[in-house]
Amino acid sequence: METRRAAAWVVRVRFIAGATVLSLAMATNLAMTARAAAPSVRLSALSPQQTDADISLHGRGPLGALGPTRPRGPFAFCPVDRPRHYRDDFGEPRYVGGYHRHQGIDIFAPLGTAIRAPFDGVAEVSDSWAGGLQVTLTGGRGFVFNAHLSRAGRTGKVRAGTVIGFVGNSGDARGGSTHDHFEWHPKGGPALDSFRFLNAVCRPRH
Length: 206
Ligand SMILES: [Zn+2]
Description:
The chain is mainly beta.
């Protein structure tokens, strides 16, 4: 077990919905000999698939900047039905209710458009001055928070794709464009930019 262990590569292969996702973890033993072990697989040759867990662990580093392929994400359904539009406005400065960074992505759609559970979970309704009528869906990988609803949908245990609310402009969006303020909190932690994960399920074919 000597020099051959200069570099150990671990390749995990997953099959998700017919798509093969490769994620590569490399363990290098720096104490071994200086023999240049040319790795048979290079990072740059792999699809830059990142899960939310990868991003949480490693930040949005170079992997996320490689290539146009879509990441495998936590969502199985687009949270808002068509017609809809959104852009990556996560982190933008907002001033209503005091200065803060936008913690979600605003998905604009007509009043009453269905808001769907992007994964299996438990839906709960709440309300606040800022968010108006809100619904939180908690699943195995984290929770999503939807605000400014006009009406609640099904609550309690729901499957992915179930209508859990309807787009509106309640709370501090009153009088403005109707939209779903959509936040993604992996593992129940701080909100993360879900733009890439939305793209995976909201465009262009979905
Ligand atoms: Zn918002």
